[in-house]
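Q: A reviewer asked whether we had any structural model of the full assembly, not just the individual parts. We don't, so I'm hoping you can provide one. Inputs are below.
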Amino acid sequence: MAALRRNERARLTGLLSPGLAWVLLFFALPLLIIVLYSFLAPGRFGGVEWATTTKNYLTLFTSSVYLNAYWRSIVISVLTTLITVLLAYPMALFIVQRSRRWRTILLFLVLLPFWTNFLVRTYAWMIILNENGVLNMALRSIGLPPQKILYTEWATLFGLVYGELPFMVLPIYTSLDRFDFRLLEASADLGADRWRSFLRVMLPLTMPGVVAGSVLVFIPTIGQFVVSELLGGAKVDYIGNLLQRLFLRSNPPNWPLGSAMAVVVMLILTMIIVLYFRGTTEDDR
Amino acid sequence: MSDPETTPDVRPVYKAPGLEERGISWRTWLLGAEAALMYVYLFAPIVVLVIFSFTSDPFGIRWTGFTLNWYAKLLSNTRLIDATIHTLTVATLSTLVATVLGTMLALAMERYRFRGRSATDTLLYLPIVIPEIVLAVALLSFFAFAFNLAESLFGIHMQQGMATVVIAHVTFSVAFVVVTVRTSLRGFDQRLEEAAMDLGASRFQTFRRVTFPLILPGIIGGALLAFTLSLDDFIISLFVAGPGTLLLPVEVYNRVKRSVTPEINAISTLMLLFSMALVGLSQLVQRQKR
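A: Here is a predicted structure for the entire assembly that you could use as a starting point for your response.
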């Protein structure tokens, strides 16, 4: 019996240790290293100087460049999240009401663009939104004045919403799929009108899907820099753009400051995720 | 997976007669119009990209006639061909490693209860929820740190290249393999394993002949996901690839930032076709599972 248990133990260790070692070495350790770097000084030609300092964090919280970048990133991520909720909810509701066969097809179509390179799809929006692009050709042909959309913050928002939409549709669909539509009937019987039924019955019960989708959309948006660079024309700095610059492009690069920036992003997200879990467990109760 | 033939669809309750009069019909046509618009939104760039890869317009943004010129140009562009080979090599290697590690982790997590299991669980899911750029700068810092250490301790000189990209890609795709394989293990009837062992199969034989074939669709699904993620990854590759390792998404990004040419439309269309073929393949595998 003891031999069997020892065998099981060895088997578990054999299965677990290679993967766990990998994740600890190449995921956990790198995160610890940027925490370490964030308390060091920048080297003269890039890299780090081994002298501890809190100057990086001080710079982040006093310099308007960085504060603005954080503020802008949070604003555009919140906007992106809100807009995707507004667009995805009715779409998920439409899909969930189809027959089983159609639901499969419609969900597959939502996922399909996700399987093609995001960079490439963002680039395609450049072709469409370009001053002489498809959109303005269409506008001109129906007699409307052409619009300058590409290289504005609106284009960034547009591209972000585009890229994140599938990640909002799927969780909302999942919670709508579990929703018992007879509850709407019951609420109507009890005298609620359509909006009341929606706001008081359907929305609260499908809230976990909305919250899950919001987390899925908010997190990648806060660190984005490709969309704002390609569609927004890199006119405004977001966290992602500054990170890219501090690590790769500035001469000399400033890794400690960049590390501090990344650490603060992680802290903000940790706070949000803790709030999220607190919210969902209360819902489940 | 339940069989659609035998499981009746039991939820058209909201279409019950009388609902309309009581004012809780969800105005299906309005929802339908919104959904249709969203599908146009999702697919517009893909359609435009394919069409404009055939235009003779040198800027690739107007329709001025049909040409295959841009595809022909790709064939002689050694830089792009090199980048494609690098990208496919990295994707293949990282998929292999991530699939093996991820499957082992999934088996350990689903089959065993052990101390620190929930902490391990959190650690394994974290790479999915962390913003890509944070992981990118962390890995860049880590490699610099490790290479400095190796240089000063052992005098070994190392630099970023294909290996660092493979390591980075394995790191972010393992989590996705774990999730996919765990899902297929959860729908798995463990009595089949017990039956095999009762009939005299050894642990290994049971795994090879019973468990493995049954969870294979899940493993293939995870592998295809890892492969696609690696092919598509741009942010992490930008940070960890050495100057000598040119990857396709990075090259596309560099070109797109400089100018818009139909040559990029053409390579994008090819990448798109390739991704679609992978999706088709994964669908085929899923269907065979039933």
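A: Points you may want to mention in the reply: Chain A has a mean pLDDT of 89. Strands of chain A lie at 41-42, 48-49.
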